Amino acid sequence: MPEDSMCENYTYEDQDFLPGNALEDYFAKIETAIAPEIKKIIDCLEKSTDETFAKAKILLFSILPELLVFYYRSGALLNEFAQGHKANKIFYLTEKILNDVYIKRLAKTLINVYSFAFIEGDFILSDQFISTAGLKIKSNFSNVSNRHIGLRETLVLIPLSSKYYALFWHSDSSFLVEENCCNNLSEIDNQKINEVIINNSYEKSVSKDQNLLATLLEKHKRVFPTQVFWGGEKKAGGFLKKKEIFFHDIDAKAFDYFFHVRLDTIMDYTDLGRNDLCACGSKKKFKKCHMPLYERVEEAWRYISDPKMRGRNIHSIPGTSAVEFPIAEWVNNIKD
Ligand SMILES: [Zn+2]
Questions:
Q1: Which residue in 92, 114, 70, 93 sits closest to 323, CA to CA?
Q2: What is the pLDDT of residue 137?
Q3: 164-170, strands of its sheet edge to edge
């Protein structure tokens, strides 16, 4: 790891309610405690037997709360805490990372309700430390981020080294790796994961391999969430468009369709039966042509247009101990 690659001067400096360097010292203590544990996990994975996998998993689960602290202290999250609350960002940050109960319950959520595997490949690291992504389009349109821990159809990536990541995911469909083992990723899947990681960065990503980063940067577009409004005679609504990486083609297509198609074109599909001819003019049956795509769009649409569908509850995974608060909500809760 190159020195100072993730450093920013005076990152935690501007707080007057804590003695100087208090946060830096606190983080240093956690790092000192868990660095040898991470080393042990990597050693276990290098030996690659069932027994060492089981040991690596136990070790990882035991340090999950500390790894979540690394996430909240990251430059990217700090950036989010600062949105509109610059003067209070350290206060909000400490509210979160010093909240032992909250952090431990989030770790429990990951352990209890997500599928788990280690992945092996050639990875980059983002300044958000932990990376997340949505796995299905329906959770992509809301102020509740699809990228928070504890929501359905999401994945969470936790770095251990440039060679190993821990991967937690929740999905009703099959996913690219096998559960409960260490998966050596194919080149294509490795690239997909790196796209997710770079997509989670705010300012920086690092890699041991300059070419790897250069290739990813070429494809990477820096897009911040933007508000999009959609209106028509029967339907109207607004939602956030976020930058996304999709794992299934149908979702990428539906997402595209949602943003580039005219409302009246979507209406053409509304009243079609499965066996009707498709409205696009292909002369194929609807079910064999645009129906799967239309259903994905419709599902997302129902979510946006029906206020009852909006809360976080329908999107949290059953059995969760805690769902990660969106930062804005967290900030509002403190104010109340
Ligand atoms: Zn069609």
A1: 114
A2: 64
A3: 131-134, 154-159, 164-170, 115-120, 182-184
Sketch the domain layout of the chain as residue ranges. Answer: 22-221+320-335, 226-310
Q: How close is the Cα of 288 to the center of ligand 1, in Å?
A: 8
| Cα–ligand 1 centroid distance for 188 (angstroms) | 29
Q: What is the pLDDT of residue 211?
A: 86
Which residue ranges in the chain fall short of pLDDT 70? Answer: 1-11, 13-17, 84, 137-147, 221-244, 258-267, 300-315, 326-336
For strand 125-126 and strand 205-206, is the pairing parallel, antiparallel, or unpaired? antiparallel
CA distance 288 to 304: 26
User: 290 C-alpha to center of ligand 1: Å?
Assistant: 4
Q: What are the tokens at 101?
A: 């109960």
**DSSP for residue 127:** T
**β-strand pairing of 115-120 with 182-184:** parallel
Cα-Cα-Cα-Cα dihedral sign, residues 183, 188, 189, 191 = positive
In this predicted structure, what is the pLDDT of residue 213? 84
How far does the centroid of ligand 1 lie from the alpha carbon of residue 239, in Å?
A: 26
pLDDT digits (tens, 9 = 90+) for 267-326: 678 788 999 999 888 999 999 998 888 887 777 666 666 656 554 456 678 888 787 876
- pLDDT for residue 231: 43
Instruction: Tell me the CA–centroid distance for residue 237 and ligand 1, in Å.
Output: 25
Cα(300) to centroid of ligand 1, in Å? 19
Q: How far is the CA of 138 from the centre of ligand 1 (A)?
A: 21
Residue 275 C-alpha to ligand 1 middle, in angstroms? 12
**Alpha carbon of 262 to ligand 1 centroid (Å):** 15
Entry pTM: 0.80
Cα 144 to averaged position of ligand 1 atoms, centre (Å)? 32
Residue whose entry in the numeric block shows the structure tokens 């967290």: 330
Q: How many A from CA of 245 to the centre of ligand 1? A: 25
